[in-house]
Amino acid sequence: METVLYTIGEFAKKSGVSVRTLRYYDSIHLLQPSNFTEGGHRLYDTDDLHRLQQIQALKFLRFPLKEIKEMVEQKQIARDVMVGSIEYQQRSFEAQLNEIQEILANLDYLKKMVEEEPTVDVSVFSSMLHMLILANETDEWLSKHLPSETFDELDKGEKLDLDKEWTKVLTAIKTAVQEEISPDSEEAQQIATRLTSIMGKTMQGKAETVSSQIKQAEPLDFPNPFTEKEQQFLESIMNLYEKG
User: Fold this and answer.
1) How many CB atoms lie within 10 A of CB 10?
2) Is the pLDDT of residue 32 over 50?
């Protein structure tokens, strides 16, 4: 029976693997063509296709190409080695799944946080997203510098409501600066009142205790959504608010 040979283009189409990938596999001796044309072009046969199917199966399990090459060439692999490799891949996929689930949860949280807003300020959103990403690091920093009884654990709904309030008031500060509202205006002082209220909820009525303890701690690089002008406006409205 005559052996069927495929050019690299035909082989790529039949196998679903790109020509570029086949050339790379050839260069690392993972899958080399069985023959060549007189002009030096690669030719593949059904044995090559069978080997490629083995490579694709092992690649699906995320084995490195170097290990795949050894497995395919040895043809037989000790059971313990294969089981160990599969278990490693299982752990790897589980870790990726946990990461994906965390990302999905964060995305859902962010959607709920902004879905009631007519527009979303990019810098405020980026700051809140950054805080969400660094939540574990922030919790570690707080637990290191504050007594464990300082804060009661907020449930997810309470935290979401609080973050919604923060998003609104931070956006209000930026809008006030854009509209050149005076720090001593009634509108600006209403923002200061809202900000003080939210800070009180966040600190759970322990602002003085928290402030004194945090001043003694090494700083944590909290994301700041404000420009220098907005920061100055914020300081002005709070100074006026405190003076009464």
Assistant:
1) 13
2) yes
- What's the distance, CA 122 to chain centroid? 18
CATH number at residue 13: 1.10.1660.10
Q: What is the DSSP letter of 31?
A: S
Three-state DSSP at 239 gives helix
Amino acid of residue 125 = F
The number of distinct structural domains making up the chain is 3
Cβ pair 8, 42 in contact under 8 A: yes
54 within some domain: yes
> Is 1 a member of any domain?
no
Q: b or e along 208-225 (b: 16 or more beta carbons within 10 Å of the residue's beta carbon)?
A: eebeeeeeeeeeeeeeeb
Give residue 91's pLDDT band: very low, low, confident or very high (50, 70, 90). Answer: very high
- Structure tokens belonging to residue 183: 């720090």
- CB-CB contact of 59 with 72 (8 Å): no
Which amino acid belongs to residue 149?
Answer: E
For residue range 166-220, what is the model confidence (pLDDT) as tens digits? 888 889 999 999 999 999 999 999 999 998 888 888 776 555 554 554 445 555 5
Cα distance between residue 225 and residue 234, in whole Å: 12
- Asked whether residue 71 falls in the same domain as residue 175, the answer is no
Instruction: Report how far residue 105's alpha carbon sits from residue 99's, in angstroms, rounded to the nearest whole number.
Output: 10
Q: 117 is written with which tokens?
A: 């807003």
